[in-house]
Amino acid sequence: MTFVRHYGRPDLFITFTCNPKWVEVTRELLPHQQYFHRHDLIARVFKQKLTTLIDLIKKGQVFGPVKCHMYTVEWQKRGLPHAHILVWLVTKIDPILIDESIKAEIPNPTVDRQLYDIVKAHMVHGLCGPGFQNFSSCHKDHVCTKRYPKSFVDETQTAGDGYQLYRRRRPENGGFTLTLQGHQVDNRWVVPYCPLLMTIFNAHINVEFCHSVKSINYICKYVNKGSDAAMFGLQKDNSMDEVSQYLAGREQTAAQLAANPKQTTLTVFFRLCQIDTFAKTLLYPQVPSYYVWSKNTWVHRKSSQDVQEHPGVKFNSCLGRVYITSQPA
């Protein structure tokens, strides 16, 4: 909440979800591979897309000049990441002008077929409730926790609970419909989005306008909530009467670990070669002769013999080695 105390309420809450059908992903898959076989590929492509999205918001000023932003990345159980982004704008958005940046309607297919197809693929809430799949994960006590379907609204307005009511016109009042899973869907099921960002990224990008401080508490906790936790029990063999001891631990998937690999002396050496011209002349086993490993990085030795023609570089007779990992039989 430090950002809120200093900058006030954020203006936009954006959720950006990875699309496993991005061409940058599919073209790199080997025959018979699926996206969940390549956690490294998913992590790299999503990171590049997220960086581009934030650059568009900050430098491209898609929504106007940006004062500051913050974001967090979460990983779904199926191995796909999504980012929650809060944006503070220099000039607050006038609620009257919301429709210029945020839409919650099905696009006109004859005017912009590409946007129509993208919205149909990514921005329609999963059909739930009577007549649909009642076992949907968004349902609790037979009620959609995401409040879908929404109500029809002729003009964008602000609700009493601080949440924005976006324009969602009826079919007879200029709204469009589409067919999904054999059902006719209208604007009540559309998740709010920015047309420009949808066209650029071809992914689920939910853009919400923050109008009141009442909604900020939930949003900020959502962005800063901790990692998933898992419960597991410990019990002695053949001791069914023993009281189980449960431990709470942090749950991390293979996809999360691929996105944030641990640093090693070898990988840090690769980065050292990008910024240190002298390091480029060395083989990895020679590195300990000129550098010492300190606080997860290689730093120049401060004592020992000077190296000619390389000011500040010291030499020691220490050598390193590359360990061999044998494959199990």
TrEMBL record:
<dbReference type="Pfam" id="PF14214">
    <property type="entry name" value="Helitron_like_N"/>
</dbReference>
<protein>
    <recommendedName>
        <fullName>Helitron helicase-like domain-containing protein</fullName>
    </recommendedName>
</protein>
<feature type="domain" description="Helitron helicase-like">
    <location>
        <begin position="1"/>
        <end position="87"/>
    </location>
</feature>
<dbReference type="InterPro" id="IPR025476">
    <property type="entry name" value="Helitron_helicase-like"/>
</dbReference>
